[in-house]
Amino acid sequence: MNVKNNWWKFLAVIIMLYVLLAGMLIPMKSGIYGVDSISLIASKNTVIEVEGYNANYDKAKEFRAWIKFDSSHIALAKAVSVKNYNKAVLTFDLNVNLPGTGDVLPATLIIDNEIDGYAIFPEGLVVTRNASAADIPFKHATLDDLHVSEGIKFPYMNILHETIRNTFFHVAIWMAMFLLMTVALIYSVLYLWKPRLSYDHHAYSFTAISLVYGIIGLATGAVWARFSWGAYWTNDVRLNMAAVAVLIYFAYFILRGSLEDGDKRSRFSAAFNIFAYLAMIPLLLVIPRLNDSLHPGVGGNPAFSGEDLDNTLRMVFYPAIISLILFGVWIAQLRFRVFQLEEKHIDKINSGSPLVE
Amino acid sequence: MGKILQLIKKELLLELRNKYALGSILLFGVSTVFVVFKAFNQFSPMTWNVMFWVLFLFISTNAVLKSFTQEKGSQAIYLYTLLNPYNVIIAKMIYNLFFLLLVGIMIYVLFIYFSFDPVVHLGLFILDIGLVAYGLSVIFSFVSAIAAMENNSSVLMAVLGMPLVLPVLLSGIKISTIALGITVDSEMNTDLLLLFAIDLMLTGVVIILFPVLWKS
Amino acid sequence: MMNKKLIVFTLFVFLYFNSLAQGGDDFIRSTGKIYAVVGVILVLFFGIVFYLVRLDNKIKNLENNQDE
Predict the structure, then answer these.
(1) C-alpha distance from C41 to closest chain A C-alpha (Å)
(2) I need a surface site. Which of A65, B28, B212, C64 has the fewest CB within 10 A?
């Protein structure tokens, strides 16, 4: 293999290796895996046992914990006893006037130590109010000197846990699919502009690999969903829209299969490809935003957007997309060369011995 | 503009001349609605909503299918060499739009006749039928132009068309749940605007792409 | 031939995952669901390999035809 012309194939392999190594080896930040009971009853000694993930509670010297009701009502734990490396028992004095009006209120647990950094259990607790303590004022503590763990680490999120690493594979393959479909679209437009057979073959090759990516995207999504949401297929909007997009591209291949070779097939499939791509844009981008979704960032799920897709994730996520695109281009080139071989084969028959009609 | 009107008139004449074409759609509608209601016996507004759109989709697929297929033969080819493809597709889309709107209202009337009328906001519901009919007519006009070139066109059209109409249809169902008072949604205007935007975009794409199909 | 084998293989992978997914405190969900990530990577890998095998068969057919 000629290195000079095929440098991008080496690049694809190297980046994929980097993605696999970095994506799997970079540790997670410490987080709160769970608590013994999410519903608390406010009293003088409200006790909660917290289980940590990737935690070093026994080695930490400075262990603090808070329960946050809102930004001006944060209660500091009055006692913390560490049981082992990932378990600690926290005691709060909640026999005070809690904010709000309802009998039960949602609350967030925050813990912090100097080795693991801080960890949040967002809206994970339900506190039942002690009505008799309404006249005891709330002792507000500020969240100060929160520690941040050292080194490169991926953020910890409660539903996702380690599966946040799937961002580099499941999410990246959808992005790569979208870009490869765009390449196919460009070739389809080029064909309509200048009807060259190679444009049509390129369009077909890129559509084929993007359909493969789409099916892989659905399959990886199913595996991930099974272990996060408990079912392979859910009524999730984004999932169903993605399935429809894959169906539309199936139709492209059915159309090609039902027409005979020649200019008409190329022209029709190019036109259908453009139409399908444009019909897909509202599908994938607009409609999922209008509805509730199990996907991160929608309907109370932890979000990837903004600060959450943090720089550590980006460091692996973008290379993953680039690598998958390069692999897609590589495979599309292989498919294209099959077309060229077929063409040569047909030419050979046509110009061959007169015995072959 | 005058050409387009003439073409629409021609479509209408073709439709009327073929008496059993209209009758078959009416019969198809009545019998499916009848079967559905006899099978279900009792209906909640949500089922009403879903059945309405499912029947609308299938009946309109059948109704628009013949859009291009009925114009085979050398006479039609001669006719169309004289015409501008833009006029042809615009006329088709407008004709199909009104035809599907009629089909939608027919199904609505049949539904009221056989069961009950759960619609709370009638104007919104009719507008919704109109927008969905617009989207379906655009997509089916395009797809039937492709499918007309094939012999097994009804199968091909269903295969090509069904996935394409889903975004339009799902938006339509979402709006109609509001019209039926099943859900209360503050973002209704966004939904309507979105559906309209999808329709407009598809119209533009079809108008640009149709001459490509027209050459053959 | 190849396709039949692949279908059987896919079925087995599916059943395997399904059996793993039963119950709450299982192997896949241990250690922060890291095996769900492994599963996703395997699905991705075998998906691409599946397409490459099909491409390989196509090229093999062409080569055989060319020899004749």
Answers:
(1) 7
(2) C64
